[in-house]
Structures are given as C-alpha cells and as structure tokens.
Amino acid sequence: MTDPQVSVIITTYHNERYLPRAIDSVLGQTYPNIQLIVVDDNPPDSPERRATEDVMARYPQALYLRHPENRNGAAARNTGLRAATGKYIAFLDNDDFYFSHHIASCVQALRGHPDCGSVVTSVVKICGGICWERIDPPTEEVWRALLMKETALGTGSNLFLTADTARQIQGFDERFRRHQDVEFGLRYFALDRCCPLEDVQIVKEMDGFSNVPALDGFLATKQLLWDTFRNTLDALSEADRHRYFAAQYSSLLYTACRSGRRDQIQAMRRALEDHRPLSRKEKLLVALTNMGLFRTYEALKRLVKRLGAGASYRKIAQSLPPRDRASLDQALSAGRKEAL
Fold first, then answer.
1. Strands of 43-127, DSSP E
2. Which pTM value belongs to this model?
3. Cα gap 148→189, rounded to integer Å
4. Confidence of residue 52 (pLDDT cuts 50, 70, 90)
5. Cα gap 80→306, rounded to integer Å
6. Which 8-state DSSP code applies to residue 32?
7. How far is CA 97 from CA 112, 167, 207, 248, 296, in A?
8. pLDDT tens digits along 217-229
C-alpha cells in the first residue's frame, strides 16, 4: 500500500529561535512521505524575517513561502493550504514540535478508522523547564468540546486532518487575528469524525513570543466568535450557555487583571457573575491584582505547577522511545536555562 502524502504546514511569526526544532521534528518523522511547507508571516524588512531566512537556508528540502507583509496566522495557514499537495494536512506552530512517530500514528489511525477524517492526540505543555500540563483528547464530540473549552486541543498544532474537507470549508477565516484554530475547528469538526489518540505526541512550548492581547482587542475577537457562531450558541441549553459564557468571561477577567485596570476588572467580574459566582481561584486573582500583586498570583500558579511537574514528566517520559525522550529533555533543559 502506497503511503499517502502528508503536508505539514509550519507557520512562523517571531519565535524563529524555535523554528529549527519544529522543522527537525518533521524531518525526523518515521513516516516517509511528507511535504514540508514553511510560511513566513514576518514583515519583509524585519529582523525576524532576516533571521528566519537564515534558518531556512539550512533547509532546502522545505517549500519556503514568504508573505509580502504581515497578514496573520489564519492567512498564513491558508497560504500553506493552497500550496499543499498531500491527502492529509498537519499544522505545526513554529515553537511546538512533534515526537517522531506522530504522523505515522495519525495515518495508521485513519487507515484503521475509515469513517474518520481527522486525528487529535495528547499534548504536553512545557513552561520554564517543567511539564506544565498534559491535555488529552476530548471524550465527547470534538466540536462541542472545543466550543465549551477553547483549549480542549492544547494547541493549534493538534490538527491532523483531511485536505479535501479543509478546502471544502474554505480554510481559515482571516478576519480572526486570534482564535483562528478555534473558529476553524468548530467548522471542521462539525463535518468530520475524529479519531482520538491518547499517547502524548506533541509538545506545546509556552515560553515563546506571545502577543498578549489588550482587553478591548480580545473582547472584540470574542464578540466576532460569538456573532459567527450565534446559531450554535442559541441552540445550547440554558445551563450550557451559562457554562460557555462563564468560561469566556473568566478568560477575559484574567486578561483584565493582567492589565491592572480596575475599571476593566470590575466590568469583567460583573459579566462573569451574570453566569456564575467567582471561583476561589478567581477571587484570589482579583484580590491580589487589586493590591498590585498580580505577579504574586502568577508566582503562586507556577509553584503549584512545579509541585506536580516531576510526576507528570515521569509518566510521559516512560512511554517515549529514547530519541523522543531526549528531545523532551533538551527542550526542558533549555526552558530551565531561560528561566534563570
């Protein structure tokens, strides 16, 4: 049986220091038939573009596509989709990486489940040199899990899917400068059944460049998402609608606290309380932020994560082949050095 081609699309904007790791993880796959596409969304005259070009000079086997201006992640993914020739599409953010068996496992899963057109796997998030969080595939329909919790897949790199269906829904909606993966996933997974794989196959880097939104911009993106999926939201039960918007405003409350503006914090707190009372964690967040101690809250959160990080690492690492374990250890070691 001929191995179908898989087109892996890496979109890159800033974070060029991680890009070789992402590319090497694709070139080191056990699966033989891969088309590698790298889409550069950095402005042409930026130092990030020049640094990315230096990286890409080392990888002539990749199809390297450069945008004439910064457009956004959704546009970059669409550029990759237009150039892709594979039966399947896999996306990879430039600061994430795959373990070596990822693509082979996904193709094998789809061969064994011909009624499915996509695969999602477990993801480990790393931050500051520790295994921050493991996210397993949803146990319910993926579109619903993604609706109710936008981080249900762990990362946009956890999209392995049929090229025909991705094109059928016309790719990504370029109006979205954030939540592109959520918007795309809600439409895609409503059409295609998904095969979940519970072993960890993707590493999500949390220490890279993050374009943290101001509250106004983040709220505008949320409003666009709500408007786009208004019919879907209207069809939810009252309890699920409250659960949905509580999750949305909890995220917005955190963004408001990051800004430190009390008027924004109060506005998002009131909006959240329209759907449920604040949790103890949210009460602590608001209290510490109002005392000017948002960084203390973040430090406490890191401490809690570190207490459980060793057990999480051991559970993940014991199931990895030596090569992949070495890749994880190297990424964690680099994170620890940067955290010093």
1. 63-66, 88-93, 97-98, 118-127
2. 0.94
3. 14
4. very high
5. 37
6. S
7. 25, 25, 13, 28, 31
8. 999 999 999 999 9
CB atoms within 10 A of CB 318: 8
Query: CA nearest 331: which of 161, 200, 197?
Result: 200
Under a CB-based contact definition with an 8 Å cutoff, are residues 77 and 172 in contact?
yes
Query: What CA–CA distances, in Å, run from 94 to 11, 122, 205, 283?
Result: 6, 18, 9, 35
Q: How many residues does the chain have?
A: 340
* Rounded Cα distance, 239 and 260, in Å: 31
Q: How far is CA 192 from the centre of its chain?
A: 20
Contact 213, 176 (CB under 8 A): no
Task: Go through the domains of the chain in sequence order and give each one's CATH number.
Answer: 6-210 (3.90.550.10), 215-292 (no CATH)
Task: Assess contact for 116 and 137: CB atoms under 8 A.
Answer: no
Q: How far apart, in whole angstroms, are the C-alpha atoms of residue 335 and residue 338?
A: 5
